[in-house]
Write a structure and sequence with these properties.
Elements (H helix, E strand, L loop, with lengths): L1 H14 L4 H27 L7 H28 L7
Helix pairs in contact: 2-3
């Protein structure tokens, strides 16, 4: 049972160097930003003159931030598997 708990709640946050609660906060912030972007997109759908680039700007910013986190997580998974080579 403890392995299941670790896989569900602890493994991924530790891959990106965070505790469970720190990861919850970071993921929640991304979620709220996405909700804001969605509201801008719906506003733009109704009134095209408003929020012309707001949603896409938000998504581009988040993509850049998440890319760095993705690299960190991939390197940590490789390190744990014993295949990490910083030269590659």
């Amino acid at each position: 049972m403890s392995n299941l708990f670790g896989r569900l709640f602890l493994d991924h946050p530790s891959e990106v160097g965070e505790s469970y609660f720190h990861h919850m906060g970071a993921a929640s912030r991304y979620g709220f930003r996405l909700l804001g972007a969605a509201m801008c997109a719906f506003t733009h759908a109704l009134i095209p003159a408003l929020c012309k680039t707001s949603a896409s700007d938000c998504i581009k910013d988040m993509a850049g931030e998440l890319h760095g986190r993705t690299i960190t997580a991939r390197e940590e998974r490789m390190r744990r598997a014993g295949t990490y080579d910083p030269v590659i």
